[in-house]
# Entry
Amino acid sequence: MKVSTAISLAVLLMVLGVCTNRNVAVHAGIPYRICQTGCNTAWVACCALGGGVAGTFTFKLSAVSAAIRGCSKAQGACMSACAALSSPA
# Structure
């Protein structure tokens, strides 16, 4: 694993950890939006470190590196964790 990919995945996991902390939830909706923004920001950075530009590729229609596929899978997991913030505690 390249160092840049490892760093990107570490950032995504950190965001995921912050997003799943329900004690942060003060006002309904705000933590969810902050969590999604964090996931997306980390995804864009991860894609850039993987040599791509976020939002310019489609998995079935273009050759995408394993690093960028990993970024997208991690983003999906992060966004799933954010969904838990939108429901009552």
Remarks:
- The mean pLDDT is 75.
- Residues 3-86 form one domain.
- Helices lie at 3-19, 30-49, 66-83.
